[in-house]
Amino acid sequence: MSQEPADPESRPAVDGATVADDGRGSTKRRQFENSWAISLFGTAVGAGILFLPMNAGAGGLWPLVIATVLIGPMTFFAHRGLSRFVSASQNPGADITVVARELFGAVGGQVVTVLYFLAIFPIVLIYGIAITNTVDSLLVAQLNWGSPPRWLLSGVLIALMMLVMIRGQRVMLVVMQWLVYPLIAALLGVTLYLIPSWQPSFVSETTHSWGEMGQALLLVIPVLIFAFNFSPAVSQYTLAMQRRYGSESDARGNVVLRRTTILLVIFTMGFVWSTILALGVDGLQEAREANLPVLSYLAQVMDNPFIGYIGPAVAIAAIGSSFFGHYLGAAEGAAGIMRSVATKARKNPSEQTISVTVAVFIFLSTWLVAILDIGILDMIETLAGPIIAVVLYLMPMYAIHHFDALERYRGKVSNVFTAVAGIAAVACIIYRITVTGL
User: Fold this and answer.
1) pLDDT at residue 345, as a whole number
2) Is the pLDDT of residue 296 over 80?
3) How does DSSP classify residue 134?
4) CA–CA separation, 37 and 22 (whole Å)
5) What is the C-alpha to C-alpha distance for residues 277 and 199, in angstroms, rounded to an integer?
6) Are 38 and 180 in contact (CB under 8 A)?
7) CA atoms within 13 A on the CB side of 255
8) What residues does each domain of the chain span?
9) 156-160 own/partner pairs: CB under 8 Å, 24+ apart
10) How distant is the alpha carbon of residue 32 from its chain centre?
11) Where are the annotated segments for Disordered (predicted)?
12) Confidence band for 398, pLDDT divided at 50, 70 and 90
């Protein structure tokens, strides 16, 4: 997902000038920008969207309404801030880890690199759990087979996904980009199909006090951030914008980010609203306790062949496609950390040694977590969501207000909004630890 979309006829900007905007150039520009919007959308669509309904619907109607209104601006402003952070380097082609070292220094840059890894790696673990539970549900509920040993099923599935990565990353990236289109169609199809099953009682059954609604909104923010996160692709996306548009890369990049955000809000929140209204309060709770993606749970409880097979198929495709994109980021971050540790130890391992070590580490850790079947929503709420918030929401805002390279972006109300959203996500884990004991 983080690879620049193919555009063989595109020409990079020269001396900060943009590509000529004649009729043909305008068409190629739209193709280039739309291709990136779809790629960013595909990076975000994964396990998060499939688990978001259980969390978003738990607090009732009004927290869901507020979350729907807030998530669009949150997503746009946060990813714009991270993109601007990447563009702060004076060295062309510098990625996020290089920019972090330039701005924060060697130690601070290493801290940012570790946080960047920790923001992505838990998502890989989550996908290991999700793909195992989804396939197991398909085998038992739809195919009427017995449930295979969990250690064997999880090991085979994770190994297959990693084999695709190791043996053909370039082909994988192209295939995953094309998978986004049927995923969009399938999400829209499920959203519309569930309309006759909507339960109006959801509105009255989930009415809570203002305090309970505030608590529910606080707890849903990390899952929203997780479900709408495409930060693993932002670094390469920003570099692609710079190569093509030069000094106008920020303005054109905002157009792409806006399109991506609109796509995510329409298809993701439309899907969330439809599934929540169809399941009702009891169904949402049962799906959460089963630790299953919402489509897999729908396939179990709805006696309909369409949902029975399309649900798990969409879940597997979404989890698999997003796993690939996040694996690239996790592996890159782990390799960077390993090189830093090796340098301090005055050792010089080969790139092959680093790649093999990282692959083995990710496989074993993902396999172990999948066997243990740790609660996915608990991992999102207490680990993935808050760390993503630090890297995506708080770190760029701090950099904008402390480094001269980003001075021109200061004094914006959107900066305050983004920082508050990030603080709220981090506050969620503090709340869960201190109040609920999780």
Assistant:
1) 82
2) no
3) H
4) 22
5) 5
6) yes
7) 13
8) 39-436
9) 157/128, 157/131, 157/132, 157/370, 158/128, 158/131, 158/132, 158/363, 158/366, 158/367, 158/370, 159/363
10) 22
11) 1-28
12) very high
DSSP secondary-structure letter at 5? P
Identity of residue 230? F
* CA distance readout (Å), 382 to 133, 394, 419, 420: 21, 17, 19, 18
Structure tokens at 264: 């995510």
- Tell me the pLDDT tens digit for each residue of 94-118: 777 778 888 888 788 888 888 888 8
Those residues with Cβ within 8 angstroms of residue 99's Cβ, 6 or more apart along the chain or in another chain: 85, 86, 88, 89
Q: Which CB contacts under 8 angstroms, 24+ apart, belong to 153-161?
A: 154/128, 154/367, 154/370, 154/371, 155/367, 157/128, 157/131, 157/132, 157/370, 158/128, 158/131, 158/132, 158/363, 158/366, 158/367, 158/370, 159/363, 161/131, 161/320, 161/323, 161/324, 161/327
Cα distance from N-terminal residue to C-terminal residue, the chain: 33
Q: Which of 4-18, 117-131, 166-180, 237-251 shows the lowest per-residue confidence on average (mean pLDDT)?
A: 4-18
Residues 129-154, mean pLDDT to the nearest whole number: 87
Distance of CA 271 to the CA centre of its chain: 16
Distance CA 76, CA 358 (A): 32
Give which of 47, 97, 41, 84 is closest to 385, Cα–Cα.
47
- Two tokens, residue 215: 């608590």
Residue 268's nearest CA partner among 187, 388, 384 is: 187
Its pTM stands at 0.80
Name the architecture of domain 39-436: Up-down Bundle (1.20)
DSSP 143: S
The tokens describing 351, both together, are 């790139």
Residues with Cβ within 8 Å of residue 85, at least 6 apart in sequence: 96, 99, 395, 396, 399, 400, 406
Residue 40: per-residue pLDDT: 86
Rounded distance between C-alpha atoms, residue 424 and residue 234, angstroms = 23
Tokens coding 150: 């969990």
Tokens (6 digits) for 144? 């009427």
Q: Which amino acid is at 404?
A: D
Assign 3-class secondary structure to 189-258: HHHHHCHHHCCCHHHHHCCCCHHHHHHHHHHHHHHHHHHCCCHHHHHHHHHHHHHHHHHHHHHHHHHHHH
